[in-house]
Design a protein that fits this description.
The complex is a heterodimer. By secondary structure, chain A is mainly alpha-helical. Chain A contains eleven helices and no strands. Helix content of chain B is 79%, strand content 0%. Chain B contains seven helices and no strands. Classes of the chains: A mainly alpha, B mainly alpha. The interface between A and B is medium-sized, with 30 and 31 residues.
Chain lengths: 221, 254
């Protein structure tokens, strides 16, 4: 097994064995969808108009919530230092961790998203666009989140500051993510929004491991 | 990490020593202040007494002489921060760290001023304090990034380590800002194409262009003066912290 796959396997094993976290995250994601109708009223038409935004905000917050565990535990028990001295270049380790983080924190949300679509009265065709846009857009959130987690890993009380840093940077993901779901008034631009979303995901995935690795190694020595 | 084997210190190397930097740049401070004040007096005189009222907007057009320079600085300061970030990552120049740290609150202030004057201007001309227009929205996001960077500086205990980490984040922001700008434009034209605000742009009469240029230069000089002073303050603050640490250590051993 290559070192890259080993890092991914280790992350996945860890998150399965420590259990609870993933389910809590999904619960949080669904709960936002449950709470919104209480706030805005059970009007189906209004809900289905708000649904794309609500789904994305729920995904946004859930991804940001799980951000802190990306590097923090490994930093505290010293694993991160060992990984930095491994044969595998450190940016590859970070890339592996980002992928594992996406599998652990984004895939459950995508699986749970139909539930949200039903509760928010989205119709059948919009439902598939929700799944597709989350599938295409969440890698960008994971990649940007990795930068936030890497920048704040050496701060002892850095839990809140990473989301504050990442939220403004993630505005494009939110814009195109919602754009890919809603056909909206006027011409249907959801197709091109989805393509832009894919482009942003690919760019951030390609660049963020280097930035995150640089941030970690310059914060640690 | 100082290189003590360097044969003959170049200009940049001499600047790298905080004490040398302060000693070399302190004489600049007064001339800069005087130039800034003179430019402001000239610019404000032009703006208030020697420029015409707009035929539509009346006297409110004079807000432009504050609004446009601060908006220009909001981006210029981020540029300074990005260049300093490269300086601190590539050459590990100590003064680049200090410059980066000193620029962040100034940039946040100028961005906030640009938004504030913009909303004051928007009220009489557009009839609203805030509109989710593309340019305003991306300036707001820029302000949030500035505030995040300021918060990040305050969260670190060790400022030397903080500098390199924040330099990485600043550069990530610099790459991301054009993407944010583009996406926000796409978004706002999608939602409300009718409310796009068009300024007369290049065919501005010279009677308005002159005070605008003078004010832009005045504000830039103001930033340079404040930036230099903030860097000196930061150097002094670090020296104070080092002295306090020393005092605490000797107190413990004695």
């Amino acid at each position: 097994m290559s070192a890259f796959a080993a890092v991914i396997a280790r992350e996945l094993r860890l998150s399965i064995r420590t259990g609870g976290d993933v389910l809590t995250l999904v619960l949080f994601f669904v709960m936002i969808g449950v709470v919104v109708p209480f706030a805005v009223g059970p009007d189906r038409e209004l809900l289905s108009r708000l649904a794309p935004g609500v789904v994305w905000i729920a995904a946004f917050l859930s991804m940001l919530l799980g951000l802190d565990r990306l590097f923090r535990a490994d930093h505290e028990d010293g694993t991160l230092i060992l990984l930095r001295h491994a044969d595998l270049p450190f940016w590859a380790v970070v890339a592996a961790k980002v992928m594992a983080h996406w599998v652990v924190s984004a895939v459950p949300l995508i699986v749970a998203s139909p539930l949200l679509a039903v509760m928010l009265a989205l119709d059948g065709s919009a439902f598939w666009r929700v799944v597709l846009s989350l599938l295409v857009g969440t890698p960008a959130l994971a990649a940007l989140g990795a930068i936030g987690a890497a920048v704040t890993v050496s701060i002892r009380r850095g839990g809140l500051i990473a989301p504050v840093l990442i939220l403004p940077l993630a505005v494009p993901v939110l814009i195109f993510g919602v754009g890919a779901i809603s056909t909206g008034p006027g011409p249907d631009l959801s197709g091109s929004a989805l393509l832009f979303l894919a482009a942003i995901s690919l760019i951030t995935l390609a660049l963020s491991p280097f930035a995150a690795a640089l941030a970690i190694s310059s914060g640690e020595d | 990490m100082t290189t003590d084997t360097a044969p003959k210190p170049s200009f940049w190397n001499r600047l790298a020593h905080p004490g040398q930097f302060v000693a070399l740049t302190r004489p600049l401070l007064w001339p800069l202040t005087i130039i800034t004040a003179a430019l402001f007096i000239a610019g404000l005189w032009f703006a208030f007494f020697n420029s015409p009222e707009d035929y539509q907007m009346g006297d409110t057009v004079r807000i432009m002489y504050i609004h446009v320079p601060t908006a220009w600085l909001s981006q210029f300061v981020y540029g300074i921060m990005a260049v300093s970030a490269i300086g601190s990552l590539v050459w590990r120049h100590p003064m680049a760290d200090v410059s980066m740290k000193a620029a962040a609150p100034l940039g946040a202030t100028f961005t906030a001023l640009a938004l504030f004057t913009g909303s004051l201007w928007g009220r009489p001309t557009w009839g609203t304090f805030w509109e989710w227009d593309g340019r305003m929205t991306s300036t707001l996001v820029l302000l949030l990034i500035y505030l995040g960077i300021v918060a990040l500086w305050r969260a670190f205990d060790d400022q030397l380590r903080a500098a390199r980490v924040i330099a990485v984040f600043t550069l990530v922001g610099a790459i991301n800002i054009p993407i944010i700008k583009f996406s926000v434009d796409w978004w706002s034209t999608l939602h409300q194409p009718s409310s796009v605000f068009t300024m007369s742009g290049p065919h501005m009469p010279p009677s308005i262009l002159t005070p605008l240029l003078v004010m832009a230069i005045a504000f830039t000089m103001l930033f340079l003066t404040l930036h230099l002073k903030a860097m000196h303050t930061e150097v002094a603050r670090r020296r104070l912290m080092a002295l306090q640490r020393q005092a605490a250590q000797t107190g413990k051993t004695a």
